[in-house]
Amino acid sequence: MVLTVKNLCVQYGDKVAVQNLSFSVGKGEVLGLLGANGAGKSSAIAAILGIEKSDFEELTVLGKSPLTERKEVFEEVGVQFQETNFQDRLTVEEACMQWRALYKETQPVDALLSTFGLSDKRKQLIKSLSGGEKQRLAVMLALLPNPQIVFLDELTTGLDTKARRRLWKQLSLMKENGLSIVLTSHYMDEVEVLCDHLFILREGITVASGSVQDIIRLSGQETLENAYLHFAGEEE
Ligand SMILES: Nc1ncnc2c1ncn2[C@@H]1O[C@H](COP(=O)(O)OP(=O)(O)OP(=O)(O)O)[C@@H](O)[C@H]1O
């Protein structure tokens, strides 16, 4: 298994953000973490990456602990955060170079910039990029180290239709080549295209899990969107 999580719990003071979350992700598999705002998706990812304190029975990435073997684990892991903390005064090219310096091996920057439609932005300051361009850059940087597993938090938020489709295609290709992905998303079309396995969280608790088809069947609904709303407690 590329990632194994067993009984992960995250707590902020009295607030239990994630409760007994357990799953595993194999090579080339895509796992989707779904849930309403505040359901615990980002907290789960932050805990898996060792950024947030957590309790767990087991937490291994590529057979190693992301807490005690950080350096080895992070050579093989890509991360895209919801709030991208770019240094706005860098150009796109400078950000790529800085990021690249953190890893032993990386994918060729030129090819990635072109894949993400950012080739003509390389000399542009990050602060002058549009929201969607910044988002594409964040995903691109997550993939730069040629990781075995990538964590994508709100993958396509802010992207236009064409950019979303391009990104889905690119990720599907990388998945075929063995990339494992953990993503969060509020868009069920994207989840249907990309995810092999879904986990729906509600106030930190796993209320449903399975393939897209499993989730639809379990809910008694006809579409994934309705099934999601049913389980996530977002029904009006
Ligand atoms: N540092 C913190 N201190 C206290 N509470 C926190 C902290 N971080 C998150 N929370 C709370 O934990 C819960 C889970 O938050 P989290 O960010 O994991 O949700 P999410 O599912 O990623 O939401 P969204 O879809 O809005 O990104 C929320 O109620 C949030 O307010």
From TrEMBL:
SMART domains documented for this protein: AAA
Domain ABC transporter per the UniProt entry, residue ranges: 3-228
Top-rank taxon: Bacteria
Keywords: ATP-binding, Nucleotide-binding, Transport
UniProt-listed SUPFAM superfamilies: P-loop containing nucleoside triphosphate hydrolases
Pfam families in the record: ABC_tran
InterPro entries named in the record: AAA+_ATPase (IPR003593), ABC_transporter-like_ATP-bd (IPR003439), ABC_transporter_ATP-binding (IPR050763), P-loop_NTPase (IPR027417)
MF (Gene Ontology): ATP binding; ATP hydrolysis activity
Keyword Kinase tagged: no
PANTHER family (alphabetical): ABC TRANSPORTER ATP-BINDING PROTEIN, ABC TRANSPORTER ATP-BINDING PROTEIN NATA
Family, similarity comment: Belongs to the ABC transporter superfamily.
Protein's recorded name: ABC transporter ATP-binding protein
Source organism of the structure: Paenibacillus albidus
